[in-house]
Amino acid sequence: MRKKLVVANWKMNPAKGGDAKKLFLSVGAVATKLKTVETVVCPPLIYLQSFADLVKSRSFVLGAQDVFWEHAGAYTGNVSADMIFNAKARYVIVGHSERRALGEDDAMVNKKLKSILQFPLIPILCVGETKRDEDMKYVRALKDQVKKSLAGLSREEVRRVVIAYEPVWAIGRHALRACRPDECREAVHIIRQVLADILGETKHARDSMILYGGSVDSKNTREFLTDGLVDGLLVGRASLDAKEFTQLLKITESLS
Ligand code: PGA
To answer: Fewer C-beta neighbours within 10 Å, C or N terminus of the chain?
Structure first.
């Protein structure tokens, strides 16, 4: 049976290295013992290298929150996929809505994916509509995002990509409202349809991992994983509280 994937996106937190290490170790103490859950912590890049030596288990690994598409050179402030791989991360988040809000578009996301896939790294591609309109424009928006982000990738590469459905309206402290599991299920269905079109068959589209992200906590974990039909979760705020996040991990383990 396939493991569930739970990704902690710490975003730009915490401010102090000591607090970051404490949180990482507290989460690791629980995550390393889980049999059916793989936990990925994506800390700010400045902490990544120092955490690498603390990783002792294949079920508790590191990820980066972003990457630049070039390998090396005069790109002030950027970090390449090579560097992330050399820092012993296994996953890389791309196309998060908070990066898209700063100007990242599907073409840039596509370049980032291609760069990540040159290494033994697993990209976590974030997609999601900004609003749910009555006239179903969000369906087209979601399909377009997936198609454009994955353009030009080989079938094998597409199958390596984890897709996180993150409706922008349900993310963060200022979320409009919670996403319902049936809305999540519908989005998963739409994403799998696009994957089936790209891969030319439904079997592999069913195998692709799809996560849900947007105000996930220990209270709604169960409903997204069961009724939402996802293979895992991408967690923001709730991943910064060790007690809350490890509770979420234990619930995920109990569902397998
Ligand atoms: P949130 O963030 O859990 O704080 O809503 C999720 C995300 O942005 O990935």
So the answer is: N
**16-49 pLDDT, tens per residue?**
999 999 999 999 999 999 999 999 999 999 999 9
The ligand 1 atom at the shortest distance from the C-alpha of residue 126 is 9
SS3 203: helix
CA-nearest of 7, 152, 124 to 67 is 124
Active site residue 98: no
* Ligand 1 atom at shortest distance from the alpha carbon of 97: 8
Sequential DSSP letters for 38-100: EEEEE--HHHHHHHHTT--BTTEEEEES--BSSSSSS-TT--BHHHHHHTT--EEEES-HHHH
How much distance in Å is there from the Cα of 209 to the middle of ligand 1? 18
